[in-house]
Amino acid sequence: MKTTRIVLAFMLSAFFCSQAAAQPFQRESFPDGSFSPVTNINRGSYPRVLSDNSVMFRVNAPQAQQVQIDLGGVKYDMVKSEDGAWKVTTKPQVPGFHYYFLIVDGVSVADPASQSFYGCSRWSSAIEIPEAGMEDFEVKAVPHGDVRTVYYYSKVEEAWRPLMVYTPAGYNEGSQDYPVVYIQHGGGEDHRGWMEQGRTAQIMDNLIASGKAVPMIVVSSNSNVRSRNGGFSGGYSWQGMQAFRSELLENVVPFVEKNYRTKRDRKSRAMCGLSMGGGQSFYIGLRDPEVFANVGVFSTGMFGGIRGASKFDLETEVPGILTDTKTFNKQFDVFFLSCGEQDSRIGYTREIVKKMHDGGVEVRFNSYPGDHEWQVWRKSLHEFAQYLFK
Predict the structure, then answer these.
(1) pLDDT tens digits for 327-382?
(2) Rounded CA gap, 176 and 148, in Å?
(3) In 130-280, beta strands by DSSP E
(4) 281-311: per-residue pLDDT in tens?
């Protein structure tokens, strides 16, 4: 049954692509005030974002019996017109980056009309809803850094693995050494998430150009690590972090410091991440202060708000944070937490931050409008980066 569905999904994707290619070009009349999002393949077609941030979809599938749009987990039934095209308009969407899928006769597939991104543990379509005042997330007329994909050998997986590395403008022409941020993706994503969905290069270029952040290198690794001895990098526990901890400290950091001009002291290293990567940053960053003096934790579920989360004991998970707080505070230049205000994790995050503040822990906290999604994490990086290495 699984094989049949995979074959059917492939056939449907090929069908939509051939249908799109077979359609003669024609100028359509779009609703006033609507626009084509940057995530579209064809900027003069569908999906269309309307003036109230609702989204109009149109799919050519004349032989299909049922077509739906699954946008952020909400399914919308599309209506078939006489020409065989299916249409629907969603409810207004909050600004930001949203994964979506087509469901055609029960099979979920990516939409060939939109760019695809690796998220939700698969290649997914996405739509970008812009937000006013977020120009730092866009490409601007400032000096631009580089993002490169490089490969290192992992002694944990015993295989070659990719890294995506941002170097600031001027890196190639200069000789200075730079501090480094090791940034981690969430569950169902990989090393591409922060550089593609997260717009790391645009954020860093604009912050550095405006003098709000110091020039720094940003390294995004794939934390979906499975060691040869059976260990996996999943789970919100110290034990569950060990495979990726070994990967990061024994393979990734040494590779970066050998191949890039980096400052190699703890104060010049930071670790941060979102969701699963936030949990990794919490455990590894806070329990390895000899490596990292700066830690950012974005939208983690380890404190609660997700299935499987249990009552979180701060002192057990980070020994000394409450019983030797003075020493803990001295070890970290920046300790920052964030969460979306509509995220199921927000209440638990606020509660743990209050417990830290009551205990004298020097932790910064901010929340932003939004759920468990990329606009919140872009804002988190945007703020965290401005605190670093000063």
Answers:
(1) 999 999 999 999 999 999 999 999 999 999 999 999 999 999 999 999 999 999 99
(2) 19
(3) 146-154, 159-167, 180-184, 217-221, 269-274
(4) 999 999 999 999 999 999 999 998 887 677 8
How far, in whole angstroms, is CA 194 from its chain's centroid?
5
Distances (CA, A) of 94 to 56, 305, 323: 15, 21, 42
Give the contacts of 273 (CB within 8 A, at least 6 positions apart).
Answer: 183, 184, 185, 186, 223, 279, 280, 281, 296, 297, 298
Chain centre distance of CA 136: 17
CA distance 350 to 366: 9
- Between CA 198 and CA 308 the distance in angstroms is 27
The type of residue at 305 is G
For 378, phi and psi rounded to 5 degrees?
-60, -45
State the CB neighbour count (10 A cutoff) for residue 263: 17
**How do beta strands 269-274 and 180-184 pair?**
parallel
Which amino acid type is present at position 2?
K
User: Residues with Cβ < 8 Å from 188, sequence gap 6 or more?
Assistant: 119, 120, 121, 122
Bridge-based pairing of strands 96-104 and 85-89 is unpaired
How far is Cα 156 from Cα 266, in angstroms, rounded to an integer? 23
